[in-house]
Amino acid sequence: MMEHCCALQVGQNVPDFSLETYEPTRGDFGEFSLAAQKAAKKWTVLFFYPADFTFV
Q1: pLDDT of 17 above 70
Q2: What is the Rg, in whole angstroms, of the alpha carbon atoms belonging to the chain?
Q3: In a designed cystine with 16, which of 7, 35, 37, 51 is the match (CB 3.0 to 4.6 A)?
Q4: DSSP states along 14-55
Q5: Structural domain spans, the chain
Q6: Separation of alpha carbons 56 and 38, rounded Å
Q7: Distance from the Cα of residue 46 to its chain's centroid
Q8: Nearest alpha carbon to residue 38 among 53, 52, 17, 24
Q9: What Å distances lie between residue 34 and 1, 17, 22, 40, CA to CA?
Q10: pTM surpassing 0.85?
Q11: 34: buried, middle or exposed (CB in 10 Å: 19+, 13-18, 0-12)?
Q12: Stretch 30-55: mean pLDDT, rounded?
């Protein structure tokens, strides 16, 4: 049986998500929310890499 992954394709919309971040300008933790970025009409570039220490 062949499994199909639900990966996004070029041109598809990314589902809303939020994640905890480190804000070096404040020296504290914050939160990134894709929905908030969209509401503020800010451009966002999402970049994923497969593992730490991967040369890109």
Answers
A1: yes
A2: 15
A3: 35
A4: PPP-EEEEEETTTTEEEEEEHHHHHHTT--------SSTT--
A5: 19-49
A6: 27
A7: 5
A8: 17
A9: 35, 6, 16, 10
A10: no
A11: middle
A12: 82
